[in-house]
Amino acid sequence: MAAGVRAGDEAVRVEPERVRPSIYGSAVEPSTWPATLRELVDAFGAYGAVVVRATGPDREITQGVGLDLDAAARWNQYYRALDPVAELVERSPAGTVGRVVDAITATERSRSEFFVDWARPTGVRDAVFARFSERCDGPTWLCLPSESTHRYNEPWPTELMRQLVPHLRAAAGIERMVSEQARELRLTTDILEQLDRGGLLIDQHGFVRHMNSAAHAILTRRDGLSVDGRGELSAAAPGTRTALRALIALACGGDDAVPAAGSLRVPRSGPGQYYVLHAVPIRLGDSAFQCPRLALITIVDPEDALRRSPVEIWRMLYGFTPREAAIAEGVLRGEGLQAVADALAVTLPTVRVHLQHIFQKTGTHRQAELTRLLLATGPVFTSPRVVGRAR
Question: CB-based contacts of 383: which residues, under 8 Å, 6+ apart?
Fold first, then answer.
């Protein structure tokens, strides 16, 4: 390891009054990186602070204060690949702490394009740095540049940085986890929008985090189900409201409860009308720390499902002719064969012949069997694309 680079060597006592309580001895919150960096600048007497995500030549400054924006942009665009300090830090293990003037000799600095064309014009004469994460998919190391080569001559700056490394590592881990959860949540909401029925993401308190357009259309009708002014999903009937809360609690789980799937029938205003709700747990990330307990609730309208028969899908899957698809649609709706014949302006024997062709193409033998098959093979997502059918 280069001279001046320290990774867990003998501790040097640091006076706590040199830093504020929000930095010293406490975890750094990833949502407050800028404020934390400003406090570090004040504590170390630096003129700036930057956090770098290390991915080899594609490393980049992701957070920074004090450093000129143009200088940071030029580093990200070009000088990052020439920075010998970055190369040194990223070859070192997590926990490594050091000073630039100790790690890179004066001769090397005088011959380096990075120091001559970027560091010196930017005002960087020295810096204390620390690698706090082995991973490269989030914040990796921190650098506090100084305009003076004497700022960090005493041992306390590097020792203080060493003591901050565990807190920086924890912040990087939390930020990585939150970022992963955000990506998974975006994927979940993208999928949700493609459902051919109402779908909602809901938290353990009953508040709607996201709904697709189909759910929005259902809830705005306020027919048995609605979202109140606070954003909480609610049912019109008091008894159903209680059952809905229980369903959400079941799917989201709790401190001592394992999340589980469940279903509920929600009465509507019309006689015999209802929605069917299915709830399943949604887990974001591998850790439960700071991870919201969510559930996916789908809203099924049995009448709407019958109204929107996927005729084109049947034609592609089973090779139905337009007339056969129309007859299959009538059978699915529970209409008698005579009613189907009247609607299509054909005779009953003609409908029976077509129905036999449908049975042959689907491998079924009775209308009830055909109905179960058509319901089971309906699309889950809107606008499905089917390649074709096996022959």
Answer: 194
Tens digits of per-residue pLDDT, 123-146? 999 999 999 988 776 788 999 999
For 102, the token pair is: 């100790």
* 210 burial level (CB within 10 Å; 0-12, 13-18, 19+): middle
The pair phi, psi for residue 56, each rounded to 5°, is 70, -140
Quick one: residue 8, left, alpha or beta (phi over 0 = left, psi -120 to 50 = alpha)?
left
Task: Please write down the HEC assignment for all residues of 69-112.
Answer: HHHHHHHHHCHHHHCHHHHHHHHCCCCCEEEHHHHCCHHHHHHC
Tokens of 48: 């700036």
Question: In what order do the strands lie in the sheet containing 60-65?
Answer: 5-6, 97-99, 126-131, 141-146, 49-53, 60-65
Give one DSSP letter per residue of 171-211, joined into a string.
Answer: HHHHHHHHHHHHHHHHHHHHHHHTBSSEEEEEETTSBEEEE
Question: What pLDDT digit, counting tens, does each position of 299-355 carry?
Answer: 988 877 555 567 878 888 899 999 999 999 899 888 899 999 999 999 999 999 999
Pick the closest to residue 200 from 214, 181, 221 (CA basis): 214
Specify whether the CB–CB gap between 200 and 208 falls below 8 A.
Answer: yes
- So what's the pLDDT on residue 171? 79
Residues 262, 253 contacting (CB under 8 angstroms): no
